[in-house]
TrEMBL record:
CDD domains: SGNH_hydrolase_like_1. PANTHER family: GDSL-LIKE LIPASE/ACYLHYDROLASE, PUTATIVE (AFU_ORTHOLOGUE AFUA_2G00820)-RELATED, GDSL-LIKE LIPASE_ACYLHYDROLASE, PUTATIVE (AFU_ORTHOLOGUE AFUA_2G00820)-RELATED. This is SGNH/GDSL hydrolase family protein. Keywords: Hydrolase. SUPFAM superfamilies: SGNH hydrolase (SSF52266). One of its GO terms (molecular function) is hydrolase activity. Residues 17-189 form the SGNH hydrolase-type esterase domain.
Length: 263
């Protein structure tokens, strides 16, 4: 398939991905990709292009963004691209904050989704992941459940597509998660791409990833692993929260314009 970019005329179909690290692709490490990550959205776009039709793709997501930042920075930019398909997941970073006004946040989310629907685009949203078995995030499970109830109501009211992450038991397998325990691994992003394509009713020729058997670890090894994780991942994450810095500071969107050049 010959690659072509946005300069070669309008695309018949236009997929725009909005959100935070989940949609940017953090955890799916790929040095050849913008921002050093690939991710499920890039994989979905590549499959759509392979399936045929004149698809253009833009990914405006940036890691660390809270919901209001996603709306302020990405919504108008997305609408300017006249999308025919939009995927959006936002609010996960808000849920992790010490204090969050969930009802107010979801009112703003609904307003944004209404604008996307009114543009004529097909809109696909996500429920949050069930973190009941994740020690660090177990305390936020109730917030995520409330978030999900709002999402399901909006799906019904606005006739949105839904990727129901909460009920995807496959992702309780921690081999599908990055060592930071916050983001999907390469294998996890591959499975998420397949889940999204299923919701879209699109052909999927992505190979299922092979998972290695988890190593048997002793109690001392588990303890060392926890200490290493705390030093390498938890401490930097907490430090960013305290200093009000973001992992996405100084980053730009991976694909701000419609393209078929997905590295």
């Amino acid at each position: 398939m010959a690659a072509r970019d946005e300069l070669n005329g309008p695309f018949e179909k236009r997929y725009v991905a909005l959100g935070d690290s989940f949609t940017e692709g953090v955890g799916d490490i790929d040095p050849s990709s913008p921002n050093g990550v690939r991710g499920w959205a890039d994989r979905v776009a590549a499959q759509l292009i392979e399936n045929g039709g004149s698809w253009g793709y833009a990914n405006l997501a940036i890691r660390g963004r809270k919901l209001q930042q996603v709306l302020d920075e990405q919504l108008d930019a997305a609408l300017a691209l006249a999308p025919t398909l939009v995927t959006i997941y936002a609010g996960g970073n808000d849920i992790l904050r010490p204090v969050v006004n969930l009802d107010g946040m979801m009112e703003r989310y609904r307003w944004a989704l209404e604008k996307l629907v009114d543009s004529g685009a097909q809109v696909v949203v996500f429920t949050g992941f069930d973190s009941g078995k994740a020690p660090m995030f177990r305390a936020t499970r109730g917030r995520t459940a409330i978030y999900n109830e709002h999402v399901r109501k909006m799906v019904d009211d606005l006739q949105l597509g839904l990727v129901d992450f909460w009920h995807m038991k496959r992702f309780q397998d921690w081999r599908l998660w990055d060592p930071d325990r916050m983001h999907l691994s390469i294998e996890g992003h591959i499975w998420m791409a397949k889940e999204v394509l299923s919701v879209l009713g699109e052909k999927d020729s992505i190979e299922e990833p092979e998972l290695e058997e988890p190593p048997v670890t002793s109690l001392p090894e588990k303890f060392i692993g926890e200490v290493t994780w705390t030093k390498d991942y938890l401490y930097p994450w907490v430090k960013r929260r305290v200093t009000r810095k973001s992992s996405g500071d100084n980053l730009s969107p991976k694909y701000p314009k419609l393209t078929q050049r997905i590295w």
